[in-house]
Every structure is written in C-alpha cells, then in structure tokens.
Amino acid sequence: MDNIANVGWHMEGKRSMPMMGGKLHLQKLSENATGAGATYRWHGKVLGMTIDFKETVTKWIGNKEKIWSTIEDPKIIIMSKYEMRLHLAPTENGTRVMFEIDYELPGSLLGKILGKLLARKYADWCLRRACEDTKRILEAEQPIIHPQHVQR
Predict the structure, then answer these.
(1) pTM score over 0.85
(2) What is the 3 state secondary structure string of 11-41?
(3) What CATH number does residue 8 fall under?
C-alpha cells in the first residue's frame, strides 16, 4: 500500500461514477517514489472542471505507517486540503489496515455545498477503493499497475 499508483488506481485507472466519469493523471515530483518526502501531483478534469493537487509524505515507517497530505493550494471540487493516514499491523491471519482521511471543505460557496453533500461519501469510497485495488493487485498473477502509469 506504499505504492501511490496502487492506492490511487481508482482515480487514474478507469472512469467511475464517484469520479463523475473523470480520470486523473499521476506525476512523480520527487526523486524517491516512497518514504518521507515522496511528492506527487494529480491532475485532470472532472465534469470539465480542473483538478490539480500535490501531496507529499510527511511521515513514513516502512511496512507500518504512512502519513501524507496535500501541499500548496489544492484544486479539488468537493474537498480542499486533506491528510491521509495508513497504519499496518500484523495479525495471525494477515495484516490489519487502518486507513483514515481528514479533510477540509473548499472555501467557495458552491464547494462548501457540494462538499457537505458529497465529501464524506467520496472519502469513504476513496478509502474503500484504495484498499480493494491494493488487495486485487497483491492477489493478481500479473500486476494491474505498470510503471509507466507514474510519470515524472
């Protein structure tokens, strides 16, 4: 789950209703792909509106914990700045995953209205899909994500 392309596949891979038919592109901005300081840019269009935001890893303990958040001024429709936290712990049957997101609503009146209506549902969908996509990738005989999906 440390691979941003895996947990972000639901935004980049295929068009979906929660993404309103839109699709984002992932660009690696830092030298390192994982670990503290790894930085990415997501950009594209949803319903003709520009989505453009950067996120960076602020805390990283290999195979245990990862925290990343938006930086600068994110252009997102139903939420604004956010922080995501991923905690992994071994269990008898595998790994327990705790995945959380804290977010702010956008500053505009339309953004606040849309955010109140949709942000919680979108955040729940996003976290669930990130876990499902990662599980599918780990269980697949051939990887679903290919290196060319992460562009520099």
Answers:
(1) no
(2) HHCCCCCCCCCCEEEEEECCCCCCCCCCEEE
(3) 3.30.530.20
